[in-house]
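Researcher: Please predict.
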Amino acid sequence: MTSRITKAVIPAAGLGTRFLPATKAMPKEMLPVVDKPAIQYVVEEAVAAGLDDVLMIIGRNKNALANHFDRVTELEQTLESKGDAGKLERVKESSALADVHFVRQGDPKGLGHAVLRARKHVGDQSFAVLLGDDLIDSRDVLLTRMLEEHEKRDATVIALLEVDPEQIHLYGAAAVEPTDDPDVVRVTGLVEKPAREVAPSNYAVIGRYVLKPEVFDILEHTEPGKGGEIQLTDALMEMAEDVEGTGGVYGVVFRGRRYDTGDKLDYIKAVVQIAADRDDLGPDLREWLGGFVARGADSR
């Protein structure tokens, strides 16, 4: 029986070049999704799954992340003096969510290298990795299910999503075998961003992982792969072969709501979808959207 996982690692060292110039001075993780930065949704997901020890792997000019999860005493005092209890509570939420730590990645050598930088903090325990570009709707269970499968199978677990085969080149793709559970597959191989013609399946790896600590030893000797970076996918492929008794790799197939904030159009879609589902904004927004769509090209 494995010990309960308490640590989450969130790589956040990317430059966010697809969102320039907005990310010239502000980390892409701090871009607002309605009224919270994207990174807060990710931390909230980790905490909801019982992971209250969060390590962020950051790069230069990412101080805004640390500031967001810190106390802002002057702001709290101002809101308190105004009697604005609602805003005060929301401001305090981010600093009370979890025990949040930060470490610099240093050289930008890829996701695998970023995960490796967590080794001293994680130690010899299993841990979760959450990527900030993928926001999972809080009404849909994913990470908790992955943690359960990890404990059940004593194996590394990744999140998979069935995508249009025309889109598989945007993801890591998994070769899989069925298990006795229709929502869980055994991963037999992984390919990073394959062309459709050579993709082993249309099961795409999305940004949630529950990793056994053996991944660190594998990442230590993983050579740079696609894009000249140390790819986590390459290490997972080695673990899928159950090298040195790592337990193999399993995939939880996610069928819920996922919001991709990885590029500009998908980011806008994510903001609209999340806002449309909120009780305070949804009714008015949906009404406005209906009229906007009805006007179509005439509104241009």
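Model: The chain has two domains: 7-262, 263-300.
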